[in-house]
Amino acid sequence: MTSETWLVAGLGNPGPGYAHNRHNIGQMVLDELAGRIGGKFKTHKTRAQVLEGRLGIGGPRVVLAKPMTYMNLSGGPVAGLAKFYGIDSGHLIAVHDEIDIPFDTVKIKVGGGEGGHNGLRDISKAMGTKDYYRIRAGVGRPPGRMDTADYVLKDFGKDEKRELPFLIDAAADAVELLVTQGLDTAQLKFHGA
User: What is the pLDDT along the chain (193 residues), one digit of tens a residue?
Assistant: First the structure.
């Protein structure tokens, strides 16, 4: 593996009970990317499901990874895979749910705070840096006084489910654009001029 390889980690919780939760959108996006690559995830010794392939025609090599730990323990598998494949934080992308942006919105950033997201916090701790890319899939804020943890551990609402495929597709496009054309191009497309 060369340093040009990208590690794309789709965050979520393991098991069918969590599969359709807002908190698992990162893993839903990785399933979409796996479909584009045309492969199946395999169990890796780092407590993750992985798929190796290329994004885009002649695009860079990527390792898609779904940690099989709970969200707040995502760092171990991500750091283990980064070490195994020789990938530094400059080629790491975390795909995750984001309550601070509206549902159906995708934002891209590098570094910065974790905004209370325990999965990101654990990755930053395990990697020893906050300087990695994040594809932020907006799930919106909880209604009323609903607890944030309860909100992200619920499935998407009926209206949201109709729009969800578009959000997943857009977040997958953001990953693909980031690895093939770079941060500036990807941000221009998703953040506007």
Answer: 345 899 999 999 999 999 999 999 999 999 999 999 999 999 999 999 999 999 878 889 999 999 999 999 999 999 999 999 999 999 999 999 999 999 999 999 999 988 889 999 999 999 999 999 999 999 999 999 999 999 999 999 999 999 999 999 999 999 999 999 999 999 999 987 4
Contacts of 184 (CB under 8 A, 6+ apart): none
72 is in an annotated binding site: yes
* Burial (0-12, 13-18, 19+ Cβ within 10 Å), 130: middle
* Rounded-to-integer distance, Cα 134 and Cα 8, Å: 10
> pTM of the prediction?
0.95
Q: Is 23 a catalytic residue?
A: yes
CA-to-CA dists, residue 136 to 69, 97, 106, angstroms: 20, 6, 6
Task: Please state the separation of Cα 34 from the chain's center in Å.
Answer: 13
Q: Which of 23, 91, 96, 117 is catalytic?
A: 23
| Other C-beta atoms lying within 10 Å of the C-beta of residue 114 | 17
18 is in an annotated binding site: yes
Fold of the 6-191 domain: Rossmann fold (3.40.50)
> How far is residue 137 from each of residues 102, 179, 190, measured CA to CA in Å?
9, 17, 11
Alpha helices, H only, 86-137: 118-127
R_g over Cα of the chain: 15
